[in-house]
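Morning - PBG inputs below, output right after.
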Amino acid sequence: MHIRIGTRSSRLAVWQAEHIQTLLQQGGLTSELVLIETKGDLVLDRSLSKIGSKGVFTQELEDQLRTGAIDIAVHSAKDLPSILPPDLHIIAFTEREPANDVLVSRNKNLSLMGGESFRIGTSSTRRVALLKHYCPHLTTVDMRGNLQTRLRKLDEGHCDALLLAYAGVHRMGYDDLIVERLPLTEFTPAVGQGSIAIEVATPSLSDDLSEAITRLINHAPTAACLRAERAFLARLEGGCSIPSFALAQWTDEQTISLSGGLVSLDGSQLLKETFTGPPEESHLLGHSLAEAILARGGDALLLDIRAQL
Ligand SMILES: NCc1[nH]cc(CCC(=O)O)c1CC(=O)O
């Protein structure tokens, strides 16, 4: 059967959809891309938290899944809300790229820990808050738009550097512009960063086809990690706009370690915990992490964050 793949039309989104297309092709499945604009692509003059907390980059693709205009939707796992409506499901997560953030600049001498002050372009509440916490000497410049737009703004002098996900920078072939790889322990990524997710609507795709796609694309170790991270985010009822962070990693064959937490928007308060457990209990791991963070003052912090966004 021929598969219609729904994707946003940014270069990164199309790269990711073509990557999925290649994996399907290797299993003998043909496909085509259907480009769909989302609110997050069209509204560029407001921060994501102001546009709406959930589904900014996914809603229009989900609408097309439901009408049957597309068979699968390809998203950055990071952009997919942690709680999906009951008729929508994730059937695969690709093997994760290194999940860390990177500093991108034309100036090779810049470093976050270098002590000198410069301007970093980012629109992510997590990155702004972590920068305020760990690097208070730096300033941030609000910057929306796709990777190419941000690089153009960098070149036009709106900022001195960008803070971006390694995965996107690498997929776009901009590795040469990376001047620093940020440590996962301090700059813990957003839930799902570095993996690509396949979403389907229940009645429109046959079980056989769905299973075939899962077999070709899903990376089980990554999926176990993302289940833990997404359970954490679901318990916080957070979208991509709250300054939360979490990363699950395999410690050995049997165990997953999940570190994550919350940081206040001004960076003054940072809550972080690590939980370890078996992959079959990854959901519980995420839930436990969230409960621990909420109990340590995260509940009040979340209220505060929501009131300010
Ligand atoms: N919200 C934007 C977004 N969504 C996914 C990625 C990068 C690719 C990935 O994490 O898989 C990016 C860009 C960025 O954060 O730098």
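Note: The chain has ten helices and 13 strands.

O.
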